[in-house]
Task: inverse folding
């Protein structure tokens, strides 16, 4: 997999000429066998976003993450040396899970079964009657998962020898990510949801604006308008397996309700006061993570964790560079989060209905128009990575 070391930003008309035009088989959106291939070829060996450093601020701080596609429970821990490490939440004696809490702070992790005790660096510190095991403690350290931090965001890779660092994986987008407010976040608002839809069906919904005027006639009014009724973005960007789009902004949006206007106004004023800069471009990062900026005062990230061929968990986060220290800041943050939640709840019906249709097998092909080119790019990238994986498997036989 080669990551281009540049972002090709193109006006949308130019970008349309570069991509294919034909229909594509719908099978990758619903077929369990294809899903299993994606699991191994993509999710088990790409960098996956799992959290933010503000969740583990101090030595011994930890979070637990259940990663269903890997059948893994993970402990993400900040060590005494400040390093962020990820371990399987699995005792190396006979497999018992060490931690049930979602997170907390501990200097060591003791297994409840026979009291093997591990340090925040994963080493086995003590184990009752250990002499009778005929093994050294070094061999019993917690099993580690590769972890790297970029722009405050924690990424893991289940491949013990990832093909590239997280910075190389994101290429020039890494620099853009470091300029985002989330890079210096100290807090966030999060909600999660499960949806009966393939991860691509769900992600695709957030990669096209074609549906805005039908599904979000009111809440999408900032990015569609009389002169751009389908909300064509002004630019598309492509960088290796990643994509971006720069949304068109309606110069004359319809008036919002007074509460929403107050919330947006406060968020904008606070962003200016805090010296935050929200870019106009949002990033659709491989495999299933996107960061959307809503200037002047908002940004959210959205990660799609596949749970099965037609089930996905979405995690949405709005990152804050300050904890709410006033009623107006708290109000602006909550309004921001709730307004995004409103938009996403409008999408839900369309996404799950689309998946039910795809599952039926009634349409053998899906059709992408020019302004669904980000969907086509994701589709093609998935195909390439699965083909690479199969070729490697064949070569290894
Ligand atoms: S399984 Fe953990 S100490 Fe025995
Ligand atoms: Fe939508």
Result:
């Amino acid at each position: 997999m080669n990551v281009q070391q540049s972002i090709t930003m193109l006006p949308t008309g130019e970008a349309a000429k570069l991509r294919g035009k034909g229909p594509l088989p719908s099978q990758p959106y619903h077929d369990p066998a294809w899903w299993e291939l994606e699991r191994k070829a993509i999710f088990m060996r790409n960098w996956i976003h799992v959290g933010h450093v503000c969740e583990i601020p101090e030595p011994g701080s930890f979070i637990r993450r259940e990663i269903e596609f890997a059948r893994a429970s993970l402990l993400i821990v900040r060590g005494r040396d400040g390093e962020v490490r990820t371990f399987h939440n699995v005792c190396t004696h006979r497999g018992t899970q060490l931690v049930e809490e979602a997170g907390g702070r501990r200097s060591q992790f003791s297994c409840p079964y026979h009291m093997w005790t591990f340090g925040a660096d994963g080493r086995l510190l003590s184990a009752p009657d250990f002499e009778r095991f005929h093994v050294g403690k070094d061999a019993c350290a917690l099993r580690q998962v590769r972890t790297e931090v970029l722009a405050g965001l924690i990424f893991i890779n289940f491949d013990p020898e990832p093909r590239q660092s997280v910075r190389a994986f994101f290429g020039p987008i890494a620099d853009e990510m470091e300029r985002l407010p989330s890079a210096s976040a100290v807090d966030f608002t999060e909600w999660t949801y499960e949806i009966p839809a393939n991860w691509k069906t769900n992600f695709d919904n957030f990669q096209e604006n074609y549906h805005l005027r039908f599904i979000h006639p009111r809440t999408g009014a900032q990015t569609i308008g009389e002169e751009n009724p389908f909300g064509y973005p002004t630019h598309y960007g492509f960088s290796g397996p990643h994509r971006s789009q720069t949304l068109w902004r309606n110069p004359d949006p319809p008036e919002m309700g007074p509460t929403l206007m107050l919330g947006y106004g406060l968020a904008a004023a606070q962003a200016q006061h805090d010296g935050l800069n929200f870019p106009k471009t949002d990033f659709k990062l491989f495999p299933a993570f996107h960061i959307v900026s809503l200037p002047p005062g908002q940004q959210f990230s959205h990660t799609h964790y596949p749970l099965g061929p037609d089930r996905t968990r979405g995690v949405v986060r709005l990152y804050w560079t300050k904890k709410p220290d006033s009623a107006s800041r708290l109000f602006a943050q909550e309004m921001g989060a709730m307004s995004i939640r409103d938009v996403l709840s409008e999408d839900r019906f369309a996404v799950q209905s689309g998946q039910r249709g795809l599952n039926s097998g009634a349409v053998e092909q899906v059709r992408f128009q020019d302004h669904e080119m980000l969907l086509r790019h994701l589709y093609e990238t998935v195909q390439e990575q699965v083909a690479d994986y199969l070729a490697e498997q064949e070569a290894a036989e």
